[in-house]
Design brief:
5-stranded antiparallel beta sheet; alpha+beta; OB fold (Dihydrolipoamide Acetyltransferase, E2P); 5-stranded mixed beta barrel; single chain
Length: 296
């Protein structure tokens, strides 16, 4: 063997030994291609795993950014909604004025009075005597009532309301409407006074002259005391608190309606047969009897 061939063999042997030392596996000329393919596959897998980890981390970071943006939007929206609600509340509070009739809800009943929630920052209070009927308070929690705002701020720290004033104010509105439209109203006879009767219409005193009590004169006007009547408003002056009623006008209207109904009934149902001249006055006329008389 020549010296060159010997050197080449030694070089190959040294390279094989170095590869075996690096991998821990004995080198073989026939196994080197498989080892290269395995190494490439492992490298590709490592690269793919690294890419997947980076994508996952990026997705997680993006999700965190989205969540932060969502929370910021919610905070901003909540702040805007709260601001709008606050503005609306302040506008409603400033819209409430003394002397105004509002609708409220009974939220409590105490010895001091009836507590009413009417949309203000604090509940108002009504004198319990204004709800008394037959010695008992006629309202309960949850009932809705109309009240008049007498004072928004007091030394005791709560608004003062009035049920009676609200009823009277609404009653004046109803009286004006009835006067303008000519519709009847209802009231209760309170007492007999000079020239007629005093009628209570939801807390408003109205005058019913004796000549307007009935179609025919009534000698004993006291017989109507405590009774509910129906009358028309024939005179009204709100500034002077002057109301004049007429029960007679309602009765005349009802009588006219009854007469009209009677006439219509008579026209719609005429007499079917006329009495025979041969029969005595007032005798009942029977068609079968007339036939027997004419055809014996």
């Amino acid at each position: 063997m020549s010296t060159d061939e010997t050197n080449v063999g030694n070089a190959d042997k040294q390279s094989s030994n170095e590869t075996s030392a690096a991998t821990g596996v004995a080198a073989s000329p026939t196994e080197s291609p498989v080892t290269d393919e395995t190494t490439n596959a492992a490298a590709n897998a490592a690269v793919a795993a690294q890419g997947a980890r980076e994508e996952h981390e990026e997705a997680a970071a993006q999700g965190a950014r989205n969540e932060d943006e969502r929370r910021e939007d919610e905070r901003r929206t909540s702040s805007e909604d709260f601001g709008q609600l606050l503005d609306q509340f302040e506008q409603e509070q400033s819209a409430l004025q003394e002397g105004e009739v509002v609708r409220g809800t009974v939220v409590g009943i105490t010895e001091r009075g009836v507590l009413i929630d009417f949309g203000y920052k604090s509940e108002g209070i009504v004198n319990p005597n204004e709800f008394m009927e037959n010695g008992e308070i006629a309202v309960k929690r949850g009932d809705e009532v109309d009240v008049l705002v007498k004072a928004m701020e007091t030394s005791e720290g709560f608004p003062v309301l009035s049920r009676a004033d609200a009823v009277r104010l609404r009653a004046w509105d109803d009286l004006e409407k009835a006067f303008n439209e000519g519709t009847p109203i209802k009231g209760r006879v309170a007492e007999r006074i000079k020239g007629g009767l005093r009628v209570d219409v939801d807390g408003i005193g109205a005058f019913l002259p004796g000549s307007q009590v009935d179609i025919r004169p009534i000698r004993n006007l006291d017989s109507l005391r405590g009774k509910e009547i129906e009358a028309k408003v024939i005179k009204l002056n709100r500034k002077r608190s002057n109301v004049v009623l007429s029960r007679k006008a309602v009765l005349e209207e009802k009588n006219a309606d009854r007469k009209g109904e009677t006439l219509e009934y008579k026209r719609a149902c005429p007499r079917r047969h006329a009495p025979s001249s041969k029969q005595p006055y007032g005798a009942e006329y029977r068609p079968e009897q007339s036939q027997r008389e004419t055809n014996p």
